[in-house]
Amino acid sequence: MPHKRAKRSVRDTQNKETGFNNAPSGYRIDNEQLPKGAMRVLMGGQIQAAYRDKKKRKRGDSDKDGDKSKAEELKIRPGERLGDFHRRVDDSMRRDINSTIRSNTSEKAAKRMNKKLEEEASSKETKKLADKEKRDKKQREAAEAEAERAARAAQEEEEGQDSDGETMKPVKDFAAAERVRLNDVAQAPPSLPRMKRQAKRYGVEDSNAGSRVGAPLMRQMELEKERQRVINLYRAQKGKRLEDWVSSKEKGE
Fold first, then answer.
1. pLDDT score of 209
2. Are the C-beta atoms of 209 and 215 separated by less than 8 Å?
3. How far apart, in whole angstroms, are the C-alpha atoms of residue 38 and residue 42?
4. What letter would DSSP give residue 169?
5. DSSP state for residue 185 in the 8-state scheme
6. What pLDDT digit, counting tens, does each position of 113-141 carry?
7. In this predicted structure, what is the pLDDT of residue 211?
């Protein structure tokens, strides 16, 4: 029976004759079929080229048929009036005319848009350059002002005067002074003669004006004047109200 296995002796004899590790009988690598997915990937370019050729041939045939039918339609028919024939010709050519107009309009719009974009880009570039020049100018002015201020301060320091024209006192060497012991208490507040001089110069009559460190003298003057004005206004209103009340009482009596 062919479907049964041969005897051991027969199989050993065949192995000695043919050998071991032989390829399967009737198998060839060139007859191996690839999977469909791999075939689509490998043959994709060829399939697309064939499809494009087919589509091109079909379009050419349709154009030829359309040209023939259009040429036949653009002939005057028997019994047709000339005005009707002209209208039919205009209707058949209207699509081409509209497409031509649209293409020209789109080209003009594209040119206008490109021109507008170029103008905007140039204006932005000009604005950037102007802003950069302004920043550079401000930086130069600030540097010059700082240099001038430093030179003035150095000159005043050499002359021994401050910005207000006051004679500057020599700088004290606090390192050489006696160290303050722990738990020492100041017997009096510090004296600020410069603040007092400025208070007298601006006409501030507050006795404590020079004792407050950093008090804006001009602001204090303005507040004092405003306070006095409000007080006078209140007194005037109060006096007028009192006079009106007294006059009304006298009339009632």
1. 43
2. yes
3. 6
4. P
5. -
6. 778 888 888 888 888 888 888 888 888 88
7. 46
